[in-house]
Amino acid sequence: MHDCIRDDSGVHTLRTCRYLDPVAQAGTERIVDYLRLGVNIDHVATVRNARGSAYPDPVRAAKLAEEAGADGVTAHLREDRRHITDGDIERLMAALSVPLNFEMAATDEMQKIALRHRPHAVCIVPEKREERTTEGGLEVAREENRLAHFIAPLAEAGCRVSIFIAADRAQIEAAHRIGAAVVELHTGAYCDLHAEGRLKERDEELARLRDMAAFAHSLGLEVHAGHGLTYETVGPVAAFPEVRELNIGHFLVGEAIFTGLTAAIAGMRQRMDAARAVG
């Protein structure tokens, strides 16, 4: 149900229901309740780069994820090339049958790379050189004019533009105003509060995520979520009916050390489906 083909220009085109735009493709077949899983392979590259070797190969991991039922693959090409490299993106575009979600900072260099490859989706994320991982959402409201001009060529090239933001009304409204098709809500605070045992605050953050997912959906934005999700924390977020896609990476790569990547993805898919069925 998630077949993906390329036309002569090399652009991914989508021919089945899980990826059809619910607005643009109104009246065509689609699975309304299906929740997509995007597997982030960045930290396979982190392990590879720790030794400066050629393995483990993130492209091989991406193909395994695809075979295990991932609906898409996410890769973040950082300005410092900390994990994923330019060559990885080249090979992913050539190898994948499922869509590539290309995470990138809002810089001229990354825009040029995205326009050259024209992946199915680009997700604009904040980036700091000193951070270990993406620490927060993009401050769209502070840079509306710049970001509106930045994403316009990407959308015109056929890329579905997503903005990675905190679950905040002002940021969601700003993402809508600049013309983003998708918002991805940052679930890191919720996951951290769960890990720290701060359950009352965790539940408050979860309620905020739920309310902001509904608000974003009411504006016509497609809603995704991700960051820090594990087997323990994925269920409540997967149950949000407005959320169409979860992007999960670090936990799956870590779990794969013990169970293998295929089993790790299957375990996440099972939990997502169970939560979705309960609603």
From TrEMBL:
Asked if the record carries the keyword Cytoplasm, the reply is yes
* Sequence positions that bind 3-amino-2-oxopropyl phosphate: 40, 51, 228, 249-250
Q: Which UniProt keywords apply?
A: Cytoplasm, Pyridoxine biosynthesis, Transferase
Under InterPro entries, the record lists: Aldolase_TIM, PyrdxlP_synth_PdxJ, Pyridoxine-5'_phos_synth
Q: Does the keyword Transferase apply?
A: yes
The entry's localization annotation reads: Cytoplasm
Q: In which pathway does it act?
A: Cofactor biosynthesis; pyridoxine 5'-phosphate biosynthesis; pyridoxine 5'-phosphate from D-erythrose 4-phosphate: step 5/5
Task: Spell out the reaction equation it catalyses.
Answer: 3-amino-2-oxopropyl phosphate + 1-deoxy-D-xylulose 5-phosphate = pyridoxine 5'-phosphate + phosphate + 2 H2O + H(+)
Marked site (Transition state stabilizer) residue numbers = 184
One GO BP annotation is: pyridoxine biosynthetic process
- What GO cellular component term, any one, is given? cytosol
GO MF assignments: pyridoxine 5'-phosphate synthase activity
Could you name the active-site residues? 76, 103, 227
Q: What is its EC number?
A: 2.6.99.2
Which residues bind 1-deoxy-D-xylulose 5-phosphate per the record? Answer: 42-43, 78, 83, 133
> Known Pfam families for this protein?
PdxJ
Name the protein family: Belongs to the PNP synthase family.
Q: What does this protein do?
A: Catalyzes the complicated ring closure reaction between the two acyclic compounds 1-deoxy-D-xylulose-5-phosphate (DXP) and 3-amino-2-oxopropyl phosphate (1-amino-acetone-3-phosphate or AAP) to form pyridoxine 5'-phosphate (PNP) and inorganic phosphate.
Alphabetical list of NCBIfam families matching this protein: pdxJ, PRK05265.1-2, PRK05265.1-3, PRK05265.1-5
What subunit structure does UniProt give? Homooctamer; tetramer of dimers.
Q: Which PANTHER family does the UniProt record give?
A: PYRIDOXINE 5'-PHOSPHATE SYNTHASE
Name of this chain's protein:
Pyridoxine 5'-phosphate synthase
What species does this protein belong to? Albidovulum aquaemixtae
* Source organism phylogeny: Bacteria, Pseudomonadati, Pseudomonadota, Alphaproteobacteria, Rhodobacterales
